[in-house]
């Protein structure tokens, strides 16, 4: 029989991993960062713009991943739902700027963090992992580095990044189980150990 702390951890993990997935898939703005399509506000935009520009993934897959977020943005702004066929043009994927390799290398933390964030969102639906948390931490460090060391005014971190960070942390089942166990009083821990 599963202990109460494991059940709590499973519930917290389930909610946190789903919340993180929705934040990524529905493209809730987490930051503002200059990228190949102009300005990116989500990890999925950063990842897809680089993968599409380098010819690694086809336009059909890019549209399939962008469409849920485009629909949510249209509903939120009370606009008409965009056409699936014109999605690459709406997101400016058709006229991307060629970025020098040095620009990508200077922003490596944000790029790698975006890849890990997107991968972690999808893998988190199946199994607990640390991709999401590492991705969010890398993005945050990369953006902070831009602001602190380069005085970049075009880089902004939105408060929603804190929600992404917390949901990424709580989507790691093993760490949540340990956290719940350490937060319990010692008497309840002894009773739980006797029952198992």
Automatic annotation (TrEMBL):
Taxonomic superkingdom: Eukaryota
Bilayer-crossing regions: 12-31, 51-76, 115-143, 155-176
Entry annotated with the keyword Transmembrane helix: yes
Keywords: Membrane, Transmembrane, Transmembrane helix
Record gene name: LOC107782657
Membrane keyword on record: yes
Record protein name field: Uncharacterized protein LOC107782657
């Amino acid at each position: 029989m599963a202990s109460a702390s494991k059940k709590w951890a499973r519930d917290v993990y389930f909610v946190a991993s789903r919340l993180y997935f929705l934040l990524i898939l529905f493209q809730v703005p987490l930051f503002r960062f200059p990228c190949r399509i102009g300005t990116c506000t989500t990890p999925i935009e950063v990842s897809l713009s680089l993968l599409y520009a380098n010819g690694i993934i086809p336009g059909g897959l890019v549209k399939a991943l962008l469409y849920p977020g485009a629909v949510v943005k249209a509903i939120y702004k009370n606009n008409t739902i965009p056409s699936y066929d014109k999605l690459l043009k709406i997101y400016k994927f058709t006229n991307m700027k060629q970025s020098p390799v040095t620009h990508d290398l200077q922003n490596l933390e944000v790029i790698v963090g975006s890849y890990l964030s997107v991968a972690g969102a999808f893998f988190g639906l199946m199994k607990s992992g640390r991709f999401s948390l590492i991705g969010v931490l890398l993005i945050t460090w990369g953006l902070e580095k831009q602001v602190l060391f380069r005085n970049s005014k075009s880089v902004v971190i939105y408060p929603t990044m804190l929600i992404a960070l917390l949901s990424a942390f709580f989507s790691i089942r093993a760490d949540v189980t340990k956290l719940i166990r350490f937060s319990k009083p010692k008497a309840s821990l002894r009773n739980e150990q006797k029952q198992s």
